[in-house]
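Entry for the shared binder. Reason: the reviewer on the internal report wants the predicted structure included alongside the sequence.
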Amino acid sequence: MIRFILADLRRLWAGAVVVVLLVALATALGVTVTLQERALRLGSARAADKFDLVIGAAGSETQLVLSSIFLQPAPLPLMPGEVLAKLSKDPRVAWVAPIGFGDSFAGYPLVGTTRALIGSTVSGFASGRMFEKEGEAVVGAAVKLPVGAEIKPMHGTAAMGGETHAGVVYHVTGKLPPTGTPWDRAILVPIQAVWHVHGLGHNHEHEHEEQEHHEGGAAQVTQAAAAADEHADEDHDHHGSIDADAAVDENFTADAPGLPAVLVKPKTIADAYKLRQEYRNGNTLAVFPGEVLTSLYATLGDAKMVLSAVAAGSQGLVAAALVLVTITHIGQRRRQIGALRAFGAPRLSVFAIVWLELFLLVALGIGLGFLTGLAAAQMIANAFTVKSGIILPVGFTGEDLRMALILLAASAVLSAVPAILAYRQSPAAALRA
């Protein structure tokens, strides 16, 4: 029987190839959607796993998380620096790290933060050491810069027409191990350097120096001088400078510049909920990244349902086409089937030949479709990782095995339709046709 089936498939190889490819493409579409959606969920959840609480100015919760956790560029409103100072002294907080962004280098985002965040989210360095001075930087594992490299930051990105900050240079002192998150593509510098590059933070320092030198008197400033200072501040808003050899100072006070977001590590779960409630007011917004991701997953689930419906529809159309083609093929093979019956082949043997021939083709198409879907999902995941830094774990699970078994069971039922027609065919009528 097997030899007969193989001989028949060799004779009709062109049609067999078309059947296998149709089934494979229809199956691959559904497999790709399932694997990619699952990988995106797992990858994004792992990327946000080390960040418990994010606090920013009142606005969009989703954009706050996307910008501060996934480092997606977007203009966020600034909250007062006193929030950072208050959190840094809060006994319920294990560590707090401000986030400042807006600059880039060679396509990599520059993120201003603290040594506390780096030391608490990674275990050691792949090479080099932590930044200790204002002109030093630490790079993620995916940043193609060696220790000792120079970084000349650009305001914004080259695609946005950004300008290089004249006279500002960072030197790479350390490279972090891979984390599978967007931070692998980030260049991390002291937050005070980001403030100073953009002309922030210096004013308060100058004020303190003037107070020390003029403790006994009050300086008077003319309106013309005030206007000149205001004009100078506007000119240097994005063209400040850094003191490359200045020590990193992470003792934040209430007069710290405004910032878009703060990452907070509460000491306990109860502290996390209390801080979230306290900073969800009219001026600030506190969110758990997991909650925001859950709402995003709901959107992904809706998109998956639509794409899955499209995939199921294409599979249904392919199944209907296969049944139609096979029934037509059975009609054209009436003489062959009649000859088999005339030479003594039982009805069940004819049924088994027709059923097994179609089932083998469909099963081969399903197997090829799963492999194609896996390859396609992996290609999409690799492209996403290169762009975002998030590693998407693509792979089969028990759920996929169940789906494969369901498809094979449906194929077995589908293959029985033409087999039943062949089974009921009269040998005498077939030979007279």
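Summary line for the report: The chain has a mean pLDDT of 79.
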